[in-house]
Amino acid sequence: MKKLFVFMLVLVLISTVFGKITFWTTQVESNRMQRIRALATIFKAQTGIDVEVIPVEENDMLKQIPIAKNAGTLPDIVEGGIEPLLLLGSQNFLDEDLATKIIMDFGDIYDGAARLLSNGKGKYYGIPFHAWVQGIWYRKDMFASQDLGDPVTWYNIALAAKVLNNPAKGVYGIILPKKADAYAEQVFTEVALANGARPIDENGNITFNTPEMIEAFRFYKELGKYSKPGFTTVLDALKGYLNGETAMIFYSTYIMDDIAVEEVQKGRINKFNPQLVKNTGFANKMINTRPTSYGQVVALGITKNANKDEAEKFVKFLMSDKNYVYWVHMAPGGMNPTRKSVAESDAFLDNSVLKRYGKAKIAEIVAALDSVERFEFIDGKVITDMSKLSANFVIGKAINYMFANDWTPQKTAMWAQKEAEKVLGK
């Protein structure tokens, strides 16, 4: 009995010395969980710290946190999108001081990615972990043939769309979303923010009827003149670009394997253009009155009740060197590191998809994280009403009606203003 007591005491001491942490992740797919648990095993072998990895659907995160708090089982670290992390932070669940310290310790996290996690008071609710970005993918060879500048500014984008539009030969300057869906809102987000326009300001005022927003609708309608006819969708854009039917499309970095990998491209259009990856450029921001880009950041949040030393060690372990690369290579192009040194490293490039683009192009693509923004977030504040407008496709419907009914930009903005007021009960 005495020997058993001593043995149990040793086990308690070992667990106290080395510690244990709980990690909630939204990467619930079995192949991704396998990678994450492998990383946890390596971490334990190196540090003695045990990591319990628990998959949680992102839509369930905000429901599970209060339940776990009441049960005394809050995780030490949570991984999830910006919205749940900011909401958890605003509800005082997250350790802002430790998150800020880790960001400062790394010293190379892209500014835009960090800014999305800001608490508005000089600190951060979480640590940006990985991200995808969206922008204009364009045919560099078509642009070069007409001596056109990169499609970054409104002027260059509109000029290229006009010059390269040749419907008689089955080629369009751009394929623009015109259906009432989420893709239309995503594309319009970058257009509007490049002109300093937002549907809802930081005080909750609905602002579709501003001069900046009307001008954004005007520019969008102008691009529509040189777009493929019809109420085009995200799939029309993807297939159109792969087929050589258009010079430009808006798309996220999830397109990268479609462009570069033969079997993936053939799965979309039944043929393969081996020169497409070489002839493809990416505009990593848009500028009219100000620079912006669009994307999604997944972050790591450390809870206030966490075993802080162990949690900090695990976050730094995940975001360092080969461990970080092993994580983001779960989805090449879709998951991009938020640390500049890793995004520019040979190890990150050592992937069957990414190496086809080359280090310079990959660095240019990921650099979009310097200016990434969203309608839903302003200086650490979550604009919760924006999710209601998105759920009701207010922006997508406004764009769809603008083209379907040939509305003026002013009429489109006025309709969106009234529709938003109706949806939000204002």
What is the CATH C-level name of the largest domain? Alpha Beta
The tally of structural domains comes to 2
CATH superfamily annotation of the largest domain = Periplasmic binding protein-like II
Largest sheet: 10 strands, mixed
The assigned structural class equals alpha+beta
Radius of gyration: 23 Å
What are the segments in which pLDDT stays under 50 over at least 5 consecutive residues?
A: 1-17
- The CATH architecture of the largest domain would be 3-Layer(aba) Sandwich
**CATH topology name of the largest domain:** D-Maltodextrin-Binding Protein, domain 2
Overall mean pLDDT: 93
Number of helical segments with 4 or more residues:
21
| Number of E strands | 12
The percent of residues in helical segments reads 40-55%
Strand content: 5-15%
Assembly category: single chain
Q: Given the C-alpha coordinates, what overall shape results?
A: globular
Distance between the termini: 72 Å
Organism: Marinitoga hydrogenitolerans (strain DSM 16785 / JCM 12826 / AT1271)
Family: Belongs to the bacterial solute-binding protein 1 family.
Keywords: Signal, Transport
Protein name: Carbohydrate ABC transporter substrate-binding protein, CUT1 family (TC 3.A.1.1.-)
Describe this structure in words.
The protein has 426 residues and is α+β, with helices and mostly antiparallel strands. The protein has two domains: 17-132 and 296-359, 3-Layer(aba) Sandwich (D-Maltodextrin-Binding Protein, domain 2); 134-293 and 374-424, D-Maltodextrin-Binding Protein, domain 2 (3-Layer(aba) Sandwich). Helices cover 49% and strands 14% of the residues. Strands 1, 2, 3, 4, 5, 6, 7, 8, 9 and 10 form a ten-stranded mixed sheet that branches. Strands 11-12 form a two-stranded antiparallel sheet. Strand 11 (377-378) and strand 12 form a beta hairpin. Helix 20 (394-404) packs antiparallel against helix 21 (409-424).
